[in-house]
Structure formats: structure tokens, C-alpha cells
Design brief:
The protein folds into 4 domains: 137 residues, Rossmann fold; 114 residues, Hect, E3 ligase catalytic domain fold (Alpha-Beta Complex), CATH 3.90.1750.20; 144 residues, no CATH class; 59 residues. The protein is 43% helix and 18% strand. It is flat.
């Protein structure tokens, strides 16, 4: 007997659901094996998603890889214990999951049905089940939210023990709060130092041992702002779409849970007043237009692709700094604006200020543009052709297995053949050249040929209007090279590219 090959999908939203005593992973595996036996399927692989919400499966790489594997003509589909193991609709974009089945002719096997999204009834059933699963998820989330809110109103921690403030403990079995020593003594010392006049938060971090090398001032700020050290459990924000939002005044929860507190209420309020005064006296960020650099906001790093930011160095001099120096250790580093701006301006005027040179660069860039601007890219068309051929092959396999009759096979084959013929014509069609107007070239030449005579503000306006983006490279400390110039107003054309020195070409 010929067994159709499928992939088994197991998914639970949390570790607590994974046990055998609930609809967890072992129970789901047992159901999938029973479904495979009923439909003469061979489960060749298992994909196990633990702690993944049904509304967030598209953000999981393992799930994306699973959908990609459906394009393999040897795989007939996916087997799961129930439809909601595949997904629960959170956003309408989640229905793209069903497209992966329809595009490849794959099937979804569950305990109560075989879903074929290519069929009208299968597509409708998939949408209905997605909506029902989404409604159930939202109902569960609302019940959970209400339950957690009731716990908070009683002064109990609803979020579990993850993320507890340092030096504080909550016992979920008794519902009691307490301080943990000696960690609480460090917190008390931080308050004493700040109230004693020490305004350097990094110094307080060193004296108390609170924080890490990369998290000193922020760690002390979190400690000094935590109301639990005054004995009060306070909830003044709620999470909406993964982001904190302040609560309305009547929704704020504040309950005394520890007595006596580590810090008296009067001391805590005094610290909050000092912190507010500190925040109010902090200088505002300098807006981009008030910074001296001509090219701020228009520069990127040719090595890593990060934006080049304007900021002062330790001596107070302005410079362009690669945005990934601290996060990824990019070697481009920082270059003084006084050195960089003349070099960038001179290079752009030399490269783009000559009509013949600019016209040649534009024509050369236009030749390299992807044909996606007048239709699908060739690789996308070929991928679609392969998908349709796999669907045609699966339709024949399904007919041989008795899934549908000859008339249905002919109907599907005719539709697929028509699509394949249209796509093949698209592949065979001669590429149409992209035309760049003479007016656009003249405007650019006029801009760059007189670049040195323009004021800073005029240059910035023109850079923004034409959508100019300049990638730079710093080969030496006081030298900056223009590696690439893109003009977005000309459909994103890359007019100049000098990347061989970077090892990219």
C-alpha cells in the first residue's frame, strides 16, 4: 500500500500545557498517529512548537520552515490534532497560512476532517475554523486578563516570579510579600546615597554592586523608582499589543503589601521629587536640523548598512558615527564633520556634476534594475511555475489515491495548464528597457554641478527632495570615501557604486 508522506505538527502555547495530563504534546502526538493510521499516512518528521501562541506562529522560524517544506512534491500535507494547532487568527494576515496549502495543493489532516484549501468548501471551512479559533483565543485572553486584574486588586502578583524587583520576594502559595537580605540592604544603601546628595548613578551602582557594566545608571533608576521598597504594590500601566500604556487615574492599583517598608513613604516621595527634578533639568535632544552636519540623516555605513548618526565626541566635537559601533562593533567608527562634509561634497560634485558622466551612470544603473519594476522578477516567476507543476503532480497523485474523480482532475489540470502557459509567456517576453527622462537628468546635473555654492539648508532640502542616500567608508582616520550613491526619486537607482575595496564585489 502506498502511504502518503506528511509532517506532524505539535504546538502548545505555554510549558504548563505541555504535560501529558492536558491536551499537551504527548496527547497531540497520540492523536496525530491515530489520524495517520486512519488516512494511510506516513509521518516522516515532527515539528514541535512549545510556548508559541496560535496567533504568533508566523513569527516562528520553525513554522515558516514547515510551510516552505510543503512545496516538496513528496509531502502531501500536515497532520495535527486539531485545526487550532495550526493557527488561531490574530490578524487577517494569518490567513496567508492557508495560501501555503492552496499554492502547493497540500492537505491538512486533523482528528475530525481533511481540509483542502484549494476547494471552495475547504477554503470556507478553513476561514471559519480560523475565526472560531481566534474567537476562542480572544475569549481565553479576556478571561485571563480579568483573572489577573482581580489578583492585582487584592495585592497579589499576577505575572509570576519572573522579573521580580531585586531584594523583593512574593510567595504565591500564601500571597505574602517580603524583603530578601542581604540584597535588600544594597537597595537601602542606594536610597541612602541618593538622599545623601550623590547624584552620579554610576557611582551609586559601583558602591552598591547593583547593575552590570552595560547597565549601571538604568539599574539604579529602576531601583529608586520601584514603589515596592516603600511597601506599596502599584500597577499604573497596562500592556497593549506588547507595549506599556499608562492607565487612567481611576484604573491605577496601589495597595500596601509590606509593613514595615524598606524605605519610608516620606523618603520614597523625596526621592521621586529629586528624580523628577533631574529629568526636567536634562537638556533636550538636539533636533537633526540644529546639528551642524550637511548629510545627517542621508548617510549609511558601506560596511554594515547602519545609519550614520550625528553626535559629539568626548571633546565636544561633532562627527558622523556608525550606528552599529556599540552593538556590532563596526570598524567604520566616527569621523569629524569638519573633515567629512567637504570630502563627501567634493566626491558627489565630481561624480555626479558632469552631464555625460551622470547620464552614463543612470543608463548603467537602469540596465541593472530588476524586471520586477515591469512585472514579477524571473526568479519569482520560476518559483511559481515550480509550485504549479507540483500542484499538477499532486492532483494526479490524489486522483490515483481516490481522493477525487476524473472530472475534478480534468478541471484542476485545465486551470493549472492555463496558468502555466501564461507564466511561460511572461518568461519568454523580451525585457522592456527602463526610460529615464532627460528632465530628471538635467535637474540632477544642475543640483550637483553647483553643489559647492549652495548653503547647508539648500543642500539638505535638495537631498531630501531627490531622496539621496550616500554610503560611506572610512579607510583611514581622517579620510572618508563615498562608496555608493542612490537616488530614490529615480526609482531607487544606484548611480554610483565603488564597493570592491570593501570586499563586497
Amino acid at each position: 500500500m502506498h502511504l502518503r508522506k506528511v509532517i506532524g505538527l505539535l504546538r502548545v502555547s505555554s510549558e504548563a500545557q505541555a504535560g501529558a495530563d492536558r491536551q499537551g504534546l504527548p496527547a497531540q502526538r497520540h492523536v496525530c498517529e491515530r489520524v495517520a493510521l486512519t488516512h494511510d499516512l506516513e509521518i516522516i518528521d515532527w515539528v514541535q512548537l512549545e510556548g508559541v501562541s496560535g496567533a504568533a506562529v508566523l513569527g516562528d522560524r520553525r513554522f515558516e520552515a514547515l510551510l516552505t517544506r510543503l512545496s516538496d512534491p513528496q509531502i502531501a500535507g500536515i497532520v495535527a490534532a486539531d485545526f487550532d494547532r495550526l493557527f488561531r487568527r490574530g490578524r487577517f494576515a494569518d490567513y496567508a497560512i492557508l495560501d501555503a496549502f492552496a499554492d502547493t495543493g497540500s492537505l491538512l489532516f486533523t482528528a475530525d476532517t481533511v481540509l483542502d484549501p484549494m476547494e471552495d468548501t475547504g477554503g470556507l471551512l478553513g476561514v471559519l475554523r480560523g475565526e472560531l479559533a481566534g474567537m476562542e483565543r480572544r475569549a481565553i485572553a479576556e478571561r485571563t486578563r480579568r483573572g489577573r486584574e482581580e489578583l492585582r486588586k487584592r495585592g497579589l502578583r499576577a505575572e509570576g516570579l519572573v522579573g521580580m524587583p531585586r531584594g523583593v520576594n512574593f510567595d504565591p502559595t500564601t500571597g505574602t510579600w517580603s524583603y530578601v537580605y542581604p540584597e535588600a540592604e544594597r537597595v537601602r544603601l542606594a536610597f541612602d546615597l541618593f538622599l545623601g546628595g550623590e547624584s552620579n548613578l554610576a557611582a551609586i551602582s559601583r558602591a552598591t554592586g547593583i547593575g552590570t557594566k552595560t547597565d549601571t545608571s538604568t539599574a539604579i533608576m529602576r531601583v529608586l523608582s520601584q514603589p515596592l521598597y516603600s511597601g506599596v504594590y502599584r500597577v499604573d500601566r497596562r500592556w497593549v499589543d506588547g507595549k506599556p500604556r499608562p492607565r487612567e487615574a481611576h484604573e491605577v492599583i496601589a495597595k500596601q503589601v509590606i509593613d514595615p517598608p524598606l524605605v519610608s513613604p516620606a523618603e520614597f516621595e523625596q526621592v521621586q521629587a529629586l528624580l523628577r527634578e533631574r529629568r526636567d533639568s536634562r537638556p533636550l535632544r538636539t533636533p537633526q536640523e540644529a546639528k551642524p552636519g550637511v548629510y545627517g540623516g542621508f548617510l549609511t555605513c558601506a560596511l554594515c548598512g547602519a545609519s550614520m548618526q550625528q553626535q559629539r565626541d568626548s571633546k565636544g566635537y561633532w562627527g558622523y558615527l556608525c550606528g552599529s559601533v556599540r552593538t556590532r562593533g563596526c570598524t567604520t567608527g566616527q569621523t569629524s564633520i569638519r573633515v567629512a562634509d567637504p570630502q563627501i561634497g567634493g566626491a558627489m560634485e565630481l561624480i555626479l556634476g558632469d552631464r555625460d558622466n551622470l547620464t552614463r551612470l543612470i543608463e548603467k544603473s537602469a540596465e541593472r534594475l530588476d524586471e520586477n519594476r515591469i512585472g514579477p522578477a524571473p526568479r519569482d516567476v520560476q518559483r511559481t511555475i515550480t509550485t504549479l507543476e507540483n500542484k499538477r503532480r499532486r492532483a494526479k497523485d490524489a486522483y490515483m489515491a481516490g481522493v477525487f474523480d476524473l472530472s475534478e482532475l480534468e478541471k484542476r489540470t485545465i486551470d493549472l495548464n492555463g496558468e502555466l502557459t501564461s507564466l511561460q509567456r511572461l518568461v519568454d517576453r523580451q525585457e522592456q528597457p527602463i526610460q529615464i527622462s532627460a528632465e530628471s537628468v538635467s535637474a540632477l546635473v544642475e543640483v550637483f554641478s553647483s553643489w559647492g555654492d549652495l548653503t547647508r539648508d539648500e543642500k539638505r532640502i535638495l537631498l531630501g527632495d531627490f531622496g539621496v542616500r550616500v554610503a560611506v567608508q572610512r579607510p583611514r582616520r581622517r579620510l572618508l570615501h563615498v562608496a555608493r550613491v542612490e537616488i530614490r526619486s529615480l526609482d531607487g537607482l544606484c548611480l554610483y557604486k565603488k564597493m570592491k575595496r570593501l570586499g563586497i564585489e
